[in-house]
Design brief:
single chain, 419 residues, alpha+beta, Alpha-Beta Plaits, DNA polymerase, domain 1, Dna Ligase, domain 1, 5-stranded mixed sheet, 4-stranded antiparallel sheet, 15 helices
């Protein structure tokens, strides 16, 4: 299976059999790094690290040239530079990523309306109904790759298969800049030699539990009695993994994808022990989360915080809200309640705020008394000013001063999001 640095990739030959397929998984290659090259062609072919060059920023993305030295996303930039000293560090530009993402998704939707965004740089496409207009799924995949390169200026990898799960596996294996087609009748042949870790939902703990029973490949899963899988993984996961190993995946492409959560994190330049500073930063993140919820017309049913201490110990805490909300003030109050209840014996390296249990704002029933009415009106006015004059035109007085978040990015950006 292809690795994160592009070694071991597999691609299909021109005119490869695509019988029984209809699902495409399209994934931009090293998207943030590719956008940096798009804007500055002199960076092409060089080892790039997307992240703040100073302090303790983490790697948002890296070019394949840097990945071959072991650089990975979420790694501290300082560590990445030790692995790849000649790498060029490029500051993240989230607004630019959103702009390019919109161009990519315009290409997707010009081919088929059945597009399911997974993130800012990847999506599933169902092209079963587009055959008469554009040709077979394999032909469409070739055309799509050419159009994204010609019209947007970046490269992508595409997996073509009869199911979403196999299509995503195929695109991963073909990276970078590849196309891999798995015809329906060869699905098992494709799956059986893969590591169990390639199956959706199999993380390190599940892989360890399976390995302890001699289950290392998808073929091993198929041969293993269901009762053994249940003991290793539990009934629900054992059933799902057993189905995926056999190429069974009934999921369809969903054009209206429901967000599971919206969150922001930031890593500090230096560990912070001052509770007042930490509370201020949590409030700042909560306001950003609220703004994104309102922009996307969601409300949140719960709020969680993430705290990473100086020794990299990480804790999360969650609070269910009495009423779903998109008001940053209310999200911030919940985040601060959770923070104040924590036992803090060390300085803090990272803080994060996340809104969960999302639902459409239009479906949220207001109570007889709306305790958030004034805050909702105030934050709505701030949204209007920000839309007109840019982010940061209006902010809380308590948040004035130097930024500490080192160009922190949303932890789950989507196409068209407001950062």
């Amino acid at each position: 299976m292809g690795r994160a640095d592009g070694t071991g990739r597999l691609v299909s030959r021109p005119g490869a059999d695509d019988s029984g397929t209809r699902i495409l998984h399209v994934d931009m290659d090293a998207f943030y790094a590719s956008v940096a090259v798009l804007d500055d062609p002199s960076l092409r072919g060089k080892a790039l690290i997307i992240g703040a060059p100073e302090g303790r920023s983490v790697v948002s993305s890296a070019s394949y040239e840097a990945r071959r030295f072991g650089v990975r996303s979420a790694m501290p930039v300082s560590q990445a530079l030790r692995l790849c000293p000649h790498a060029i560090t490029v500051a993240p530009r989230f607004e630019r990523y959103v702009e390019v993402s919109r161009q990519v998704f315009d290409v997707f939707r010009s081919i088929t309306p059945l597009v399911e965004p997974l993130s800012i740089d990847e999506a599933f496409l169902d092209v079963g109904g587009a055959r008469r207009l554009w040709g077979s799924p394999g032909t469409i995949a070739v055309m799509l790759r050419e159009r994204i390169l010609d019209e947007v200026g970046i490269v992508c990898s595409v997996g073509v298969a009869s199911t979403k799960h196999v299509a995503k596996m195929a695109s991963t294996i073909s990276k970078p800049d590849g196309l891999l087609i798995v015809p329906a009748h060869r699905t098992l042949e494709f799956l059986e030699p893969r590591s169990v870790r390639a199956l959706w939902g199999v993380g390190p703990k599940a892989a360890e539990a399976l390995a302890g029973r001699g289950i290392h490949t998808v073929a091993d899963v198929i041969r293993t009695p269901q009762a053994v899988l249940v003991r290793a993984l539990g009934p629900a996961m054992a059933e799902r993994i057993g189905d995926l190993a056999r190429g069974i995946d009934p999921r369809v492409v969903e054009t209206e994808r429901v967000e599971k959560s919206v969150g922001h994190e930031e890593t500090f330049h230096a560990d912070i022990a001052d509770a007042g500073v930490l509370r201020s930063e949590l409030r700042r993140l909560a306001d950003r989360v609220g703004a994104r919820l309102r922009a996307q017309e969601w409300t949140a049913g719960s709020v969680s915080i993430k705290i990473r201490f100086a020794d990299f110990t990480t804790v999360t805490r969650t609070q269910t809200l009495p009423t779903p909300t998109s008001v940053g003030q209310r999200i911030g109050e919940a985040a601060l309640d959770l923070f104040d209840a924590l036992e803090r014996r060390q300085a803090v390296r990272l803080v994060g705020v996340r809104a969960e249990k999302l639902r459409p704002a239009s479906g949220t029933v207001a109570g007889l008394w709306d305790d958030d009415e004034e805050w909702r009106s105030l934050e709505g006015a701030v949204d209007d000013v920000s839309a007109r004059f840019g982010k940061g035109a209006v902010t809380r007085a308590t948040l004035l001063g130097a930024r500490r978040d080192v160009a922190a990015l949303p932890s789950n950006p989507r196409p068209g999001q407001v950062p």
